[in-house]
Specification:
By secondary structure, the protein is of the alpha/beta class. Helices cover 38% and strands 16% of the residues.
Length: 339
């Protein structure tokens, strides 16, 4: 099949593209190569994908509609996976316009592209951040998600709503999937695991917000990719509406549109997370406990029930196994990528 993936130089987009290429699919990748973090890391990801003859990169910004349309030079894709976005929850407090431009204007351009080419399945990345400080746990897709605590979360919920409108108006089959704290090799430098490992190796303190009382539902990158690929084969329509007892399907009554959590439903306290890193690295961390920052949520906790009903699987990789894989990757690439 031919997959068009936005954000192939990013953490998740790179892993998805590599898995699909390994499976023999054709991938067109679109990425802006923005300087939000280490460009060497982004360039190394694309260089790894370039080893596959069936990978074709297109460099450009989502906001540039004409440049985005250059992806069609490789033909109409069977599946379009929209992963590119301005990432970073806390950074949205500092530079909200970057999120407006990329996540809203950029996503609208992607929706327009999907409409014009009548793509077979549009897949849209969302986030657990849309649940805000939801008191009901675990977070289920049918729960209200109307009280975002950051502008990042607000833009992601907005993209879900925009996509539903396009699915209704233009009959574009769409799956929006909500990620839960993804981690693993080739991760982003602004994420906790990356920052903690780097600081510990350099003998610096690690900053733990919320005095360590927060918890997160960590999702190992390989599990996330398996979930995305499995969902890509479940194109939303009435023939696959879930009617399992105890599971609420989010398949819209007005459109071929569905929202699905991709998380394992096994939250871990931040201090337990740090202890796991210490165990893997064989050294203690110097900890600096700080209050919660503006926009932080006390917990994330996925209900994986709909994902299991649709695909038969959910994230299962243990935290220690996933952390060990990241640390090994980091040590192997620290010097070459100037991490």
């Amino acid at each position: 099949m031919h997959y068009l993936i936005t954000g192939t130089a990013g953490f998740i987009g790179f892993h998805l593209a590599r898995r699909l290429l390994e499976e023999g699919h054709r991938v067109t990748g679109f990425d802006g190569m923005t300087a939000y973090y280490n460009l060497r890391l982004k360039e190394a990801r694309h260089a790894a994908l370039a080893q596959f003859p069936s990978f074709r990169p297109v460099i450009g910004m989502l906001e540039d509609q004409a440049r985005l349309e250059a992806v069609l030079d490789e033909g109409t894709p069977d599946v379009l996976v929209h992963l590119a976005a301005q990432a970073g929850v806390r950074y949205s407090n500092e530079n909200p316009k970057a999120y407006l431009d990329s996540n809203l204007v950029g996503t609208w351009n992607v929706l327009e592209l999907a409409r014009r080419v009548n793509v077979g399945h549009l897949m849209l990345a969302s986030t657990s951040s849309v649940y805000g400080a939801n008191d009901k746990i675990p977070f289920a897709e049918a729960d209200r998600a109307d009280e975002p605590l950051t502008f990042y979360a607000a833009t992601k919920k907005s993209t879900e709503l925009m996509a539903h409108a396009y699915a209704h108006l233009h009959k574009v089959p769409t799956t929006a999937f909500r990620f839960f704290t993804v981690y693993g090799p080739w991760g982003r430098p602004d994420m906790a695991l990356f920052k903690f490992v780097k600081a510990m190796l350099e003998g610096e303190e690690i900053e733990i917000y919320g005095e360590g009382r927060m918890s997160r539902d960590f999702t190992y990158i390989d599990d996330l990719i398996s979930g995305i690929i499995a969902l890509s084969k479940v194109v939303p329509n009435e023939t696959n509406r879930v009617e399992t007892a105890g599971v609420t399907d989010t398949l819209s009554r007005q459109a071929p549109y569905r929202v699905v959590n991709v998380g394992g439903g096994q939250p871990v306290g931040l201090l337990d997370f740090v202890e796991t890193i210490e165990k893997v690295m064989g050294r203690p961390a110097a900890k600096k406990l700080l209050p919660m920052q503006q926009g932080d949520v006390p917990r994330t906790y996925a209900s994986p029930d709909l994902l299991v009903a649709l695909t038969g699987g959910k994230p299962e990789t243990g935290l220690e196994q996933g952390v060990r894989a990241f640390v090994e990757w980091y040590l192997d690439n620290r010097d070459a990528l100037q991490l």
